[in-house]
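[[Local backbone shapes]]
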Amino acid sequence: MDDLSPGDRVALVVPGSRTYVEVVLTLLADGIFPVPLDPRLTAREQELVLGDLTPRRVVRTPAELRSLLQPAGVLRMPRGRPMHVTSGTTGTPKGVFSGLLDDRHAAALVAEERDLWGFCSSDVNLVLSPLYHSAPLRFALGTLLAGGELTGFDETGSQPGFDPTFVTSVIETERPTTMFCVPAHLQRLFAHWDEVGVPDLSGFRLVAHAGAPCPAAVKHRLIELFPTGSTWEFYGSTEGQFTACRSEEWLARPGTVGRARPGRVLSVDDTGQIWCAAPEHSRFTYFGAPEKTASAWRPTADGPAFSVGDLGRLDEDGYLWLEGRREDLIITGGVNVYPVEVENALREHPGVRDVAVYGVPDDRWGQRVCATVVGEVTRATLDRWARERLAPPKRPKEYTFTGDLPRTLTGKVRRTELQAAADREGQPTSATVQENERR
């Protein structure tokens, strides 16, 4: 690595592996910032993402990746966070940059993850999600730094695509103790286990999920199957972490994503936008974009606070409920409708396994509320259910039924795909128009 210096950036456009995680640690210990990217990106997409980041090196093959490894020895403290790239609310890719940390702040960065999640030398972390995403990489890094092991790789040492049969085999043979997942992983695992039987899960001490809303039925099954006290949900973003929530807290307050993580203070402004005051070691800038950085931060009595545009509410005990993203907001007939609120109401129906709510253009109302549903339920049943639980502007005017919702690899619903498909269907029926008029 003679050509690399502290502050340089190295793009990793290769599949995940244990070597991948070790290289990320090696680079960060030298103050060099890995930029994890989806290896499936086209050349044009890579050019768009990397243009402003000016990486010193782009790693495209496993051999190039291995060349960055240093001789085995004591793992050194990372001097920053990987530079993950996010499009956020603007659609323009930007690198989330921690900057070079001094020894005190570098130690604090590692300690807060260890203290929250209890990483230790006896841990075996089952890696399920692609390592170019921030959450699975963060859990893997924390495990290795504590002296633990990683599992979930194929015979070549690489990350396979998610396969419930393979994951079940790893659980049975490797006895992992920790796992990060998204709700879509859990749904597929539970469906598989309904067919083949549930493996011995008693070795798990931590199962954390995030990335998308978790249907209540899936959450209850998670709590039922895994050891008491082992299951958590957290809310965060590429930019930073907001909350952590034991499932037992969720049972007492269904729908919450928990309270502020240690060292953070949450607030909600008059528009419902969520702000998080964060300690100095966990702050960030958008690389090469000072104006975007400035708009993401604001001063508060608890110190600088950032927002990623999410909306929510806090109760008197500091528990947070999410109500959607500002760009997901549906404005229909001048009324603001938050998709998450509608989704939560529809998910309560026992025949709904999953649902996504979104707005599509409407000549008369600006937008109309639509829902795509996974489950065994009829349109008429859902319409009656919504009438009992939602005010007229919030009730979906159209329902589409599908076997699966389109999702990113981190489990987030691709609402734009659903919106585009619904928009292509054309104008609403006369019944839909009449329903709109009754609001």
Summary: The domain at 9-322 is CATH 3.40.50.12780 (Rossmann fold). Residues 103-117 form the longest helix (15 residues). The chain is about 30% helix and 25% strand. The chain has two domains: 9-322, 329-437.
